[in-house]
Amino acid sequence: MFETKYFDGLKERTYNEALLQIAGGSKAVGVYCAFTPQELIAAAKALPVTLCAGSEEPVGAAEQHLPKNLCPLVKSSYGYALTSTCPYFDLVDFLFADATCDGKKKMFELLNNIKPVNVLHLPQTYQTEESTLIWLKELYKMKSILEQETGNKITAAILNEQIKLFNDYRTAVKELFELNKGDNAVLFGKEICDIIDADGGIFYNLERRSKEIRESANTARERRQDMSFQEKVNNRSRILLTGCPLTNPKVINLIEQGSGMVVAMENCGGLKTVGTLVEINHDPMRALAEYYVKTACPCMTPNPRRFDIIGRIIEEYNIDGVVELTWHACHTYNVEAHSVKKYVREKFNKPYFQIETDYSEGDTEQIRIRIDAFLEILKQEGDRLKI
Ligand code: SF4
Ligand code: SF4
What is the pTM of this model? Predict the structure, then answer.
C-alpha cells in the first residue's frame, strides 16, 4: 500500500495544532454535510471540523435514543456525541447542521441537548433562482452567528481569500483523482481516502494541506514507471464507487481485496464535492450560495447533477463497472439507486451493482461473496471484449 512521510503523525499534528489555536482563543465549529461552506467558518478565524462518523462502536449507545432502523452514519455521529468519546466532537464549541435527510435533521434536535446546533434550512431543489435565494438567506444567518460567536467581522475580501484556499484544496484533491484517468491507474481507492482523510477532518492550514496532497500525488505519479505495480493493477476491474458517503471502509476494502480497483468515487468528499470551483467575484456570499446549493445530494429533487457527474466519470476514468453503496435506511440514496442503475446500464451499457449495508462486520463475508461474483462478471466481460 501507499507509503509516504505525508501520513506520519499527520492526524496528531493537525489535532495538536487545533488545540493550540483553541487555547489561543479560536472557536472550533462542527459541520456534518457538504452543503455548509467551511470558507465562512475559516473567514471568521474559526476552525471547521467535519464530524460525520464511520464507526460501529457508538451505535449501541445511540440506539438508546434513536430507532435501530436508522442510517448508521446518523447513529454513529450521535452515539459519539452522546458518549463523549469522539475527540473531534469534544473540540467543537457549536455546530452548523444542514437539514438534509429526515434522519439527520431529527437527530440534530437531540444533538442540540448536548452542544448548540444551528440548523440551516435547505430548499428541496437546486434548480430555481428561488432556491439560491433561500440558501443565501441561510448563509447570511450563518455569517451573523459566526461573527457574533467569534467577534470577527467577515468582509468580502477575507471571504474571497478563504474561497481561493478552499478552491485550491478542491483542485489538489481533483488532481489526485485524475491520476487514475485513462487506463493506467496509480492509486487504489482506499489510498485516495487515506490521503484525503489524513488530517482527521480539521480544515486547518489549508495551504499546507493542499501542498501535501500534491506531494502525495507526485509520489503516486512515479508508479507509472513502475512496471511491477502496473502489472499488479492492470488486470483489475476499474470501479466507480457511488452512493452514500464513504464514512466506513468495509465496502471499498472488500472490492480491493477482490479483483477490483476503485479508481474513482462520486460520493461526498470524492468527485461530487471537488469537481467544480466557487466563483471569485465582488459578491462572495452569493457565489457561495450558488455553489453549495447545487451539491448533488439525493435529498434534492430532482437531482440531475449527480447523473452528469456519474456519466462524466464513467467516460473519463474508463470505468468497467459501477458499485453503489447504500447505508441501511438511507431512503434518498436507496430510491435514487433505481434511476442510477437504469442510467448506467442503458446509457453506458455498464454493469451496476448495489450494496445495502451498515457499519457492522456481521455481513462482511456475505457481501464479499456477492462482490466477488460481480467482479467475476466484469472480468469475463473484459476477457470477451479482448477477443
Ligand atoms: S450525501 Fe447529502 S446528506 Fe449525505 S453528507 Fe453528502 S450532502 Fe450531506
Ligand atoms: S447516508 Fe443517507 S440517511 Fe445517512 S445521513 Fe446521509 S443522506 Fe442521511
Answer: 0.95
